[in-house]
Amino acid sequence: MLLKLVANTMIEDALLTQLNEIGMSEYEARVYVSLSALRVASAREIHEQTKIPRGRIYETLDSLSKKKFIVSSGKAPVRYSPVDVTATFERLKRESVKSLEGLHERLKTLETETPAPLMQGYKLYTDWTRDNQIRMMLKRAKSEIILLCNDEEFLSRYGSDISRAAKRIDVYLIVGRPELAGSVPVKCYIGGKDIESSFFCQDTGEKTGLSMKLLLLADRAESLSVMEDTGRLTGIFISPDIYAGYLSRKIIQDIQPVDRPRTRT
């Protein structure tokens, strides 16, 4: 008997919680569960069953009636009973779907009326995220890649990806030192003074503690830079990058091909 009482209490608690989740108040849920079990009852009987204060019983019954969960019949006393459960919850599902569709349409309207942000920036903290983003950029670029790098380790790591990209699109690989041109089997370039001072060796007065390891510009639309700060690498990926087009044009104007040493025969 005790186990049965505990089980019934657990079931009722679960039902009350679920009814709360669909918008019923605590009193509404308790009255609705009681009526669902009793099938028909007066306000007094519901009060005795639920222990809800008498002054709140009629208010709660009226609210459930307006929400079409219960109906009343008879006089002196008026008796209450739940509307067919299947019909009730089919109605709730239709109303819920209609409400969600309306909400979806309103949000879509806001989405189209709100201008997209000019630029989205993402920080890349791990080697894995940086490696994958760099390789994806090299792979998905459709017309042009500009890559500035002064680090032999980076050139070796992405050498095969750079070579594959160079077979289908224009690739401008700018290195900080001419001897690095032998690290990747593609045409390399060396920059002028502006590129050298801005990217490869900052002026003394402009030092910030950061040093650039790599800058990748793809299709003059997105960029990825990898910087080092006291031994820690951080990547910043920007798409769309509204400055990528201007920067790409300026870089190409300020580079010259690296003369590769001729092999003796």
What does this structure look like?
By secondary structure, this protein is an alpha+beta fold. The chain is 49% helix and 22% strand. The chain is built from ten helices and eleven strands. The strands form two sheets. It has an eight-stranded mixed β-sheet, sandwiched between helices. The protein has a three-stranded antiparallel β-sheet with strand order 1-3-2. A hairpin with a 5-residue loop joins strand 2 and strand 3. Helix 1 crosses helix 2 and helix 2 packs across helix 4. The radius of gyration is 35 Å and the shape is rod-shaped. The chain starts with a helix and ends in an 8-residue tail after the last strand.
Defining traits:
alpha+beta; 11 strands; three-stranded antiparallel beta sheet
In terms of DSSP E residues, the strand content is 15-25%
> Whole-Å distance between the termini?
101 Å
Shape: rod-shaped
**What is the helix tally?**
10
The radius of gyration over CA amounts to 35 Å
What is the topology, as strand order, of the major beta sheet? 4-10-9-8-5-6-7-11
Mean pLDDT: 85
Low-confidence stretches: 1-11
Pairing-aware structural class of the strands and helices?
Answer: alpha+beta
Tell me the major beta sheet. Answer: 8 strands, mixed
Give me the count of strands. 11
Helix fraction by DSSP (H/I, runs of at least 4): 40-55%
Helix-strand pattern, N to C?
HHEHHEEHEHEHHEEHEEEHE
